[in-house]
Design brief:
With about 140 residues, the chain is mainly α. Helix content is about 60%, strand content about 0%. The protein is globular, with a radius of gyration of 18 Å.
Length: about 140
């Protein structure tokens, strides 16, 4: 998957300088981060809707659209796929898998493994097993 995302990222970077009247990517980039974020959110919702409807082919198509819009947003923010893979590796080292990190709660409480205001550490949650790696 990393090769495919890297190829997509390179294609998005090369499309940045194209004429927006003929390149959907260039047009989206010209419209700015708010439009990119909106498109990303729309695609995420579409993936969810199709999943609830158990429409596997549509989930595949909408997931490709979601990844495309995510990569366009990354390119605008100067984020490379390599940065994402390094974060996934970091999480895997922390928890034994590539898992989403817990969010801090309101009131500024520390994340698992981070020191709180009083210097104590919270225990990390027990990781769930995933089937396969991101690479």
């Amino acid at each position: 998957m990393t090769d495919s995302v890297q190829k997509l990222y390179a294609a998005v970077l090369s499309a940045r300088t194209r004429d927006p009247s003929v390149s959907r990517t260039a047009k989206l980039i010209r419209e700015g981060v708010p439009k990119m974020a909106k498109k990303l959110g729309e695609e995420a919702v579409e993936v969810g809707i199709e999943a609830v409807q158990n429409n596997r082919p549509a989930v595949v198509r909408e997931s490709a659209d979601l990844l495309y819009n995510l990569v366009v947003l990354w390119s605008e923010l100067g984020i490379t796929p390599g940065e994402i893979w390094r974060e996934m590796d970091r999480r895997e080292e922390l928890y034994g898998i590539a898992e989403k990190l817990p969010k801090s709660r309101q009131g500024g409480q520390a994340l698992a493994g981070e020191a709180s205001k009083d210097g104590t550490r919270r225990e990390a949650p027990h990781p769930l097993l995933l089937h396969g790696k991101h690479r």
